[in-house]
Amino acid sequence: xxxxxxxxxxxxxLTYATSKSINFGQGELVMLSAFCxxxxxxxxxxxxxxxxxxxxxxxxxxxxxxxxxVRLALEQKSEGWILLTIIFGLFAFxxxxxxxxxDDRPFPTPIPSDSFSVFGxxxxxxxxSVAIGxxxxxxxxxxxxxxxxxxxxxxxVSADRDAAELxxxxxxxxxxxxxxxxxxxxALAGILISPITTVGPTMAMMLILKAFSVAVVAGxxxxxxxxxxGLVLGALENLxxxxxxxxxxxAPGLILLIMALALRPNGIFGKAxxxxx
Amino acid sequence: MLKVEDLHAGYGGAEVLNGVNxxxxxxxxxxxxxxxxxxxxxxxxxxxxMIKPSAGSVTLEGTEVDGYSASRIARLGLAHSPEGRKIFGxxxxxDNLLLGAYRRLPRFFGFHSQAQGELEKVYALFxxxxxxxxxxxxxxxxxxxxxxxxGRALMAQPKVMLLxxxxxxxxxxxxxxxxxxxxxxxxxxxxxxxxxxFAKSALEVADYAYVMERGKIAVEGAPAELQKDxxxxxxxxx
Lengths: 277, 238
Hints:
- The structure holds two protein chains of two kinds.
- Helices cover 72% and strands 3% of the residues of chain A.
- By secondary structure, chain A is mainly alpha-helical.
- In chain A, strand 1 and strand 2 form a beta hairpin.
- Chain B has a six-stranded mixed β-sheet with strand order 6-7-8-3-9-10, with helices on both faces. A four-stranded antiparallel β-sheet of chain B has the order 2-1-4-5, with helices on one face.
- Chain B has a single domain (2-88, 158-237), classed as Rossmann fold (3-Layer(aba) Sandwich), CATH 3.40.50.300.
C-alpha cells in the first residue's frame, strides 16, 4: 500500500521537475485509468495485454491534463494550473460516476491472493506484484533519465529551463513528456492497487491526499526518497489501525504532513537549491 | 551568416532596443560593446529567441528566424552562451557538454559514441573539464563554469556562437585565460558575436565592432578605427 502512495507521489515529482506544476487530479487519473482497464477486461481483453493498453490510456490522459489544464497557465506564468487540475479531477470524478456508477467494483486479476511467509512476514503474491511493478517502473524511468539523451534533456529542463531551450531542447515538449510519463505511472498505480482496494470513483480522494503527503514529506525532488516515506507511511497506517482502531488509519499521514511542513519544508530528502554566482 | 535589421525588443511594455542593425560575417569575430543598460544582452536574447522581438528581422544563414522559439533557433545552429553562464548545476560536466550537442545527436542511445570526437576536442581545449567530467557542474569554480558554458556551446558545432559577458565576475587572471580561449576559437574559424564590458580586450580580439548606446548602434567600425575614435575613447577606453 505504501508503495502505491510512493508511485503516485513519484508522478508528482515527474511533472514538478520539468514545470514546477503538480496535477492535483492525479488521484482521479489513477481512478480513470483503473476504470478504463477494468472495461478492457470486461470486453475480454486478456490481463497481460490490458496492462500495456491501460498504460497507454494513462499516458494519453496525462497528455490531456497537460494540454487542457497546465500549458496555458504555464505560458502565462500564472498559478492557474492549481485550480484547473483540481477542476479536471472533479470533472473526471463525475464522468466516472456517470459512466461506471458509484459502486466500488472488484478488479479481477490472475495473480493469486494466497499468502506465504518469508522470514516470518506474511506476504501475498498481490503485494509482491505491487512491489515489482512499482520498482520496475521507477527503475525504468530513472534509467531513462540517466542513460538516454532525452532523459538528460528532461533533467536539463528541470535544472534551467531557459538554458535548456538554448541547447535546442523544447521545454514544451519536455513538459508534455513528463505529463505523459506521470500518466503512465498513475495508470500503473491504478492497475496494481485495484485488485486490493476495488475500483470506485472515490478511490482517488484517499490516494491523492496520501500521495501528496508522501511527496511533500520526502521532498518534491527526492527521487527514491518517496519509496522510503511511502513504505513508512503504509506501515504506520497499518499499525495505527491495528492498535488504535481503524478509525485512526488516516491520522499518521496527516500528522506526518504537518510535521514535515513545520520542520523540513524542503522535505526530508529534498535538497535546498544552492546557486553559485 | 548572421544579420540583424532594425531590431526592436523589450520587456513588458518597456522597449529596450529601438532599431539595432548589425552583421556577423562567416568566420569573423564581432564585438558588441557599450555601457551597462545599453541593451547588449537584450540584443543577444532577442537574436537567440529568448525574448520575442517586437519588430525587425534576424536572419541566420539566409533564414529569417525572428519569432521562432529559442529551441528551434538553437537547432538551426545558433549557440548562445548566456550571461551568467547558466550551466546545468545538478548534472555532471560531461552531461552538460553532451546536452550542448543535443541538436545533432540521437535522442536515445548511441549519443555518447557519436559525440566522442567533439567531446575530445573540447577536452583538449579545456583539460580541466576533463579532470572534472564526472563532477556536478554546480560544484565548479566560476572560471571553470565559464569554460563549461563555452565548451557546451562549442559542442553544438554552431554556425554562429553568441558569447555574452564571458568575463563577468571572474578574477583578472581568469579573464585573461578566457580571452586566450576566445582567440583560439577565432583561429579555429568559429563565427562569433561577443558582448563584453572589457571593451579594450574585446577590441583587441575583434575583426569588427559595434558600440551600443541606449538601444541603438552608436558607432561601428574596425577596431583600429574605433580605438582612435574620440567618443569611444572617452566613453569606454579612457
